[in-house]
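Throughout this review, each integer encodes one residue's backbone shape. One record appears below.

===
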Amino acid sequence: MSHSPIWPSAAAVVLICLATLGVGSLGLRWSRTTSDFYVASRAVNPWWNASAIGGEYLSAASFLGIAGLALAYGGDILWYPVGYTAGYLVLLALVAAPLRRSGAYTLPDFAEIRLGSLTVRRMASVLTIGIGWLYLLPQFHGAGLALRTVIGTPGWVGEAVVAMVVLINVVTGGMRSITFVQAFQFWIKLTAISLPMIFLLLAWRADGAPDPAALQTPRVRATTAVTLPNTVRADVIEPVTVVVDGTVDGVPTTGTRTWTPGSIELGAGTTVTLPAGAQVPHVAGLEISDGATWVTPSSGAGGRGYPLYRVYSLLLALLFGTMGLPHVLVRFYTNPNGQAARRTTLAVIPLLGLFYLFPPFYGALGRVYAPELLLTGRTDAVVLLLPGRMLDHPWAELASALVTAGAFAAFLSTSSGLTVSVAGVLSQDLLRGRFRSSVLGFRAGALGAVAVPALLSLLGQNVSLADIVGLAFAVAASTFCPLLVLGIWWRGLTPRGAQVGLVVGGVLAIAAVLVTMTGGTTSAAANALLAQPAAWTVPVAFAVMIAVSLATRSSLPDGAARVLVRLHAPEGLGLGQRS
């Protein structure tokens, strides 16, 4: 384990929080009206908006989760960055400009404008809040993991820090403040993920460039002590002699023990010291892959059954879920017009592609230098641990501080965007009329947007950050994607068709989320279908919306044709697009 001092990383967290508050204060002087708080008065230029989108989109799952999945599953995870980035191509082609021309503040606004139904609006509001809260869970969980890993604080400390900083920025400056913050934090994150990798690769070359794919099983390179933060069930692949201080299979154990192949339960707080060269026992459910399997995409590395289905379903969720994420869509409402929305999307794609070059390298190096994370199950910590494992003083401390700052920038920026989108819906649909001004209602909504997921964040402890975010994508793809695509491109969508489709798609996807987060089933096929449900929930949602709309075509909104003209006509024609 690294014995580097913790103060540089602690100082980095303090500095990034202070910088976030400082940059956010720039928007405070201009945030006075409802439009300022909700959509920054629709005056954000494309390049600034693209940086802000990159800032909020690159979440805990991007900064920590992809690297953790790469350590555990190897080439199988390369589809995540592909899908995260390519989702903006679909958004560009189908949604970006028409959505901006709708003049909506929020996605429920769009639903009401297009369908003229308060019921559809309320359903969209519930889904927006649910997806936002589901997406916020890994941000708070990741913040707790980061501070616990680099400083040793309890998990709630990181959650409290992120919640407090986000609330201050959102309630004081709204979308204007958040736009400044997210654009600034994108470049912080890009620097924090890329610059340390240069030094890590130089250290890897100096160490003889050990090939991660050449390892038949992950083994510790030196004597390594691992303290388990939670109770875990681990699988032992080959006999290994360890030093234990804690609880094994419910029995207090201290001293040297030889574990034979099989399954054991290690209590929370147990410390296991592995001798140099020992094969690492791994958390139950994660099968250790040989080098060839680990490096090959779609190979089912890590024991994930039905790999081809998982890949196609994951890509479907990411490609079509992007357009349904509330915090992504709200940024397009801040563009001056539809043409600017398209330019924003084009600028986002290379920015995201550049960032996603780096996390897989952290996972690959982690297989060599931090394999003991497979025992704790906390592979998401690999980005934070590698600098201390591979670099010498003082570069180890500086690189650790930089990646910690980048991780916190990820938590803060994504949480800020999610809080704005959820607060907007809460204030407009649940708190309207309860406060003397809409700005006060927005601020109360921001408090509710943060408080609920912060209290529930412990529910995601046994699921990786990227997996939780992937489930949020699946819910968005199964609900808002059909609503947006059909609402923008098909005149025949009716309020009843939208209602039934949202219910069916939402219930199926959310049920899959809940079953997966509570441990899944005993069937490998069922687990694959539930862990990646988009391949069947998205087609079902589309089919239901279309079928019910055809059966209820007499209820087609009177103004549907006029709304569609507004969505698709260029702004220069002056056909009444709302500003």
